[in-house]
Amino acid sequence: MSENKGYYKTDKNETSFRRTWDKEEYEKRARERSRRLKTGDEDSGSNSDNDPASSNSKKRRSKGKDDQPDAEKKVKKDLETLKSREERVNLSGMLGKVQVVQSSSIAAKQPGYYCKTCDVTIKDSISYLDHINGKKHLEKLNMSLKTSRDSISDVRAKLAAMKKKISEKEAKPEYDFEASINNTKLENELKLAKKKKRQQELKKLSSKNAQAENAEQTEISSIMG
């Protein structure tokens, strides 16, 4: 009868190399953690100080905060709130054109959408929009991703402006198609009448000039005999 062994002369059902956990210990910690969350006292448990996972996570969080320079913290605090653009982003204005960029960097010499603020070139319009709306680009413009909270006076001013815009739109007279056609016809008739009058004046003037020339020729011929 052959033995049930593997290639390395070990039992095929042997799983001692796999990682194991103390289930009772972790269940105890989970129950203790849920009890602390219910009572609202997270610092009262003795297991929290002895829990290596929680202590390591706290160390990582504190280390990440301490590693951040004070200057960087100050810069982030001084950033202005996010503002809306006053004009639309023109993505098709330079389509098919070549633009000379005054920059010595390699990014400025590549084809695509060039961002002068960040000195980078983006290959397509979608990525360019993502870039100019991104955190790094806005930080260079001294803006953060946070928006300002409007006050009651701001809301009232906005509502008043919208009401004024609606009232001005309603006060404008409606477009009358028939009246517009009649006005166009009248303008064309006036132009045609002026043109005919001018032609008649030119015709009269030319006839007078012809008569004067004929009289002059007759006088010259009579003198010459």
How does this structure look, described?
- It comes from Smittium culicis.
- Residues 209-225 have a biased composition (Polar residues).
- The chain has 225 residues and is mainly α.
- It contains eight helices and four strands; from the N terminus they run H-H-H-H-E-E-E-H-H-E-H-H.
- It has a domain at 109-172.
- The chain has helices at 23-39, 47-50, 52-67, 70-77, 125-132, 135-140, 152-171, 177-224; strands at 80-82, 113-115, 120-122, 143-147.
- The protein has a two-stranded parallel sheet.
- The protein is elongated, with a radius of gyration of 44 Å.
- The mean pLDDT is 76.
The SSE order reads HHHHEEEHHEHH
How is the biggest beta sheet arranged?
A: 2 strands, parallel
The chain-level structural class is: mainly alpha
Measured between the Cα atoms of the first and last residue, the distance is: 160 Å
Q: Helix segment count?
A: 8
Average pLDDT metric: 76
What portion of the residues fall into strands of 2 or more residues? 5-15%
Oligomer: single chain
The whole-angstrom Rg is: 44 Å
Write the layout of secondary structure elements.
Layout: H1 23-39, H2 47-50, H3 52-67, H4 70-77, E1 80-82, E2 113-115, E3 120-122, H5 125-132, H6 135-140, E4 143-147, H7 152-171, H8 177-224
Parallel strand pairs: 1-4
Antiparallel strand pairs: 2-3
InterPro entries: Matrin/U1-like-C_Znf_C2H2, Snu23, Znf_C2H2_jaz, Znf_C2H2_sf
Biased composition (Basic and acidic residues): 1-30, 64-89
Domain U1-type: 110-144
Task: Jot down its keywords.
two-stranded parallel sheet; single chain; two-stranded antiparallel ribbon
